[in-house]
Amino acid sequence: MISALAWVRKGAAKELPDKYELTEEEFQRVSEMANERIRAPDEGVDAEMAIDDEAGTAKNGNAAAPEAAIDPELAEYDLEHYDDPAPGEEEEEEDEEDGGMSLFSKIKGLSYHASNEDDPYIVMNENDADSDVEDVHVRANDNMLVAAKTEDDISHLEVYVFEEAEDNLYVHHDVMLPSFPLCLEWLDFRAGRRAQEGGQGNYIAVGTFEPEIEIWDLDTMDAMYPDAILGAEAKKDKKAKKKRGKFHTDAVMSLAWNKTHRNILASASADTTVKLWDLNTLKCAHSFEHHTDKASDNEVQVVTWHPVEATVMATGSYDQTVTAFDSRAPGNLTRWSVPADVESLVWDVHAPQQFYVSAENGAVYCFDVRQGSSSTPVFTLQAHDDACSSVDIHPTIPGCLVTSSVDKTVKIWDLHSGKPSMLSSRDVGVGKVFSAKFCPDSKLHLAVCGTAGSVRIWDATTGGALRRALADRVTFPEPEGGFKDVCICG
Fold first, then answer.
1. Which of 32-36, 97-101, 299-303 has the highest mean pLDDT?
2. Is 102 helix (H, G, I), strand (E, B) or coil?
3. How far apart (Å, rounded) are the C-alpha atoms in residues 464 and 485?
4. E strands of 152-263, at which residues?
5. Residue 365 in contact with residue 351, Cβ under 8 Å?
6. CA-CA distance, 424 to 371, in Å (whole number)?
7. For 216-261, how does the pLDDT look when each residue is reduced to its tens digit (9 = 90+)?
8. pLDDT of residue 25 exceeding 90
9. Model confidence, pTM
10. CATH superfamily of 383-490
11. In whole angstroms, what is the distance from residue 104 CA to residue 198 CA?
12. 49, 121 in Cβ contact below 8 A?
C-alpha cells in the first residue's frame, strides 16, 4: 500500500542529483547516529548476564569438557577452531568491548578507489555511464512526487518524476525506511548533513510508527542514512514517557513545515502531543498538550499551519475536536467539536479565515475561526459514505476542493457559490484511497494513492463538465482527443 504522498514544486529539485559518498566525515556522522539508536538503555542487562555466567561457572566447575572425537575426513578443515580470532585480532576485539561495538565498525576497512578505472572489479568504462545521466536528470519544469510505500513488510519512499507535458510518471529513485510510514512533509530548509551549505535544499520529512522523525535529502541518491533525525534520544531515555516534552513517545501521525519561519517543523503524535522542532538544533522547541482528555481516545491526527498568520496552527484529534491557536500563546485556543474522529484538515488559502475538516463518518465540515469556540459549521458536506481520508484545496483555483475516501472514490467539489456541488467523481483504481493532493504547479492534476500500492495522476482538465463549471476562474487549454478524464499510472 501507499499511505502518504507529498508533491515537490517545479525547480526545487537538483537537475543532476548527487551520488551518496561515504567520506570520513559521513562515516563518523552515521556511526554516531546509529549508535545513539541502538545503545541499550538499561545497564542492568549486563549485570544479569554476569550473574548468569557466574552461576554457570559455579555449577559446572572449572574443568574443561573433553573434546569430542573428530571425523578424520573433516580434521583437515579444523572446524572446531573456525571462529577463533586470527593472531593480532584479540587485542582489537578487547578494544571494541571496552569502547563499544560500532554498528558500522567494519565499513571503514572496505577498499575503495579514487577512480573507477583503478578498481579491478568495475569493468564498465565511465564513458558508458553517460547514457545513465539522462535517466536521473530532473528538468526544471518537472515536478517530483514522493510516495510512502509498504510491501511485504518492507517500507520505502518512492521518489517519482512527473513530466506534465508528456503525461509521464516514473520512479526516479527510492529510499529505504525502518518502519511503516504514516505521513510526509516536503521542506527546503537545510538540516543535518548539509546544514552549513547556503541556498535552499530539497528534503522530505517522514513520520512513522516510531517516535522519531527522519529527514532525507531528495537530491542525494543511494543514501544509507537520513540527513537528520528528530527525537532519537527517546529510545535511550529510561524516563522518556515522563519527559515527553522533549520528544515523542509514540507514532508520528502528521507533519507541517512552516514556510515563513523555515527552521520550524510541527509534528502531531499518537502520544497526544503536538511539538515544534527547531531544525537548526534538531531539538524540540515546544510541546503542546491540549488534546489530553484521559476519558477519550485523543491521538492527534493532523497539524497544519495557517497560510497567512505564520504563528497560527490548527490541530485535529481522535477526541473528535479541532483546535486553532497562536503557538506563541497556546493557552488562548479556540476549540470545535465534530461528531466523528478527525481524519484530515486543510486551511482555505483563498479564504484564510476558514478551514475544512474531514471525518471518519465521511463528512467534511467548514469552520470560520472568527465565530469562536463551539460555533456551528459554516456548512456540512456529506462527501462520502465511508471515512473521508483526505481533503485538499486547490492552490490557485478558489473554491475547488478534492476529497478522497476508503470507499475508493475521489471527488472534486465546487464551493464557490457557498453551497458545495460535486463536479466530478472517480474510482482511479488505487483501492481504498488514503490521499489525494492537487499538484502545486498544474491546472488540475491530482496525485492519488491507496491500498493497491500504486500512484495515479488524475488529469481532470479534460473533463467537460468540470471545465465549464470552473471557466470563470481558470482558463484551460483545449484537450487533445476530446473531453475525457485521463489517469496516468505510476
1. 299-303
2. coil
3. 9
4. 154-163, 168-176, 181-187, 203-208, 213-217, 220-221, 228-230, 252-257
5. no
6. 31
7. 999 999 888 999 999 976 444 545 455 567 899 999 999 999 999 9
8. no
9. 0.79
10. YVTN repeat-like/Quinoprotein amine dehydrogenase (2.130.10.10)
11. 30
12. no
